[in-house]
Amino acid sequence: MKYEVSEPVIGDRSGACEQSTEQQRPAFCVCQGQNARANAEANMRFPSGEIHFSHTAISLSNKKVVGCFNSEDFAQLYFSMRGKSAFRIGENPKPFASFNAQQHNLLFFSDEEAQQEIKPDPQVEMLTVYIPSDFLLHYLPETGSPFSELRDNILAGKPARLRKTNLTITPRITAVLQELLNCMYTGYCKRMFVQAKVIELLMLQFEQCEQDEVPSTSGLKQTDIEKMLHARDLILQNMECPCSLIDLAHMVGTNEYYLKKHFKQVFGTTVFGYLNTYRMEQARKMLLEGDQKVGDIASALGFKYAAHFTAAFKKHFGYLPQKIKS
What we know:
Oligomer: single chain
Radius of gyration: 21 Å
Organism: Pontibacter indicus
Order of helices and strands: EEEEHEEEEEEEEHHEEHHHHHHHHH
Keywords: DNA-binding, Transcription, Transcription regulation
CATH architecture of the largest domain: Sandwich
Number of strands: 14
Structural class: alpha+beta
Number of domains: 2
GO molecular function: DNA-binding transcription factor activity; sequence-specific DNA binding
InterPro entries: Homeodomain-like_sf (IPR009057), HTH_AraC (IPR018060), HTH_AraC-typ_CS (IPR018062), PchR_regulatory_protein (IPR053142)
Strand content: 15-25%
Pfam family, one: HTH_18
Distance between the termini: 36 Å
């Protein structure tokens, strides 16, 4: 079966109480109570069998309720990068799924009416990949409790999610999402690229789902989560010259003990583990896309010696960086 990629774009919305920048916003995502254009968008649907994705980055000073695209023909890979939101189905006041920052899950609403409630936050960012149900079923593992339960619900047309507990967005997932958002291909090459990246996201999600230990932020205050997001940003902004854990803790307003503990709760790995994985993903991208020398890449990513970078790269990927350059 052939799967297409569709990314309709509509203009940015702005209001008195919020400023937003929206990339590849799907026309079927409707903000309740908005103008006539939004009402027209409610009636739009993508052709069956296509892969779509939407990326939203927005600043909210008030709660926002969004009508969700619901169809038994599609499932949704939902990635909450920043902010908090909840999905509700029908008249049920209990959330079907709730998300904090840096969490993701696979959702299926069938034909049920669904809404997403987005909490006020100066930085809200989310990405949703809409995939045909038969595409998902083709790659869904045959065995395993969460997989078989999801399969049965999809075939029965019942709302479902992959995990009751959300999964953590890892550096590797972040890298794939960025590749999707910054795809430079067009035409059939773009369709193939997007399909490959969606399959990779499914693989990473299924792999995480099979792991016994799933990080949880349920015991953390929102201020603690925001501190860890700030810490992550500082880590990535200073890869060339990483600061110590003590300095990083002081910069975000906590101590070293809570930095280590809370960072692992939010991101599912240690500070060093996150930095190392992100470095390696960036290194591979730089090797594939550019003409930079291995030594220059090592320096840009904060390695004092190219030999240390080469050893870390081989340990992470199983082959030397020179293999890509050769």
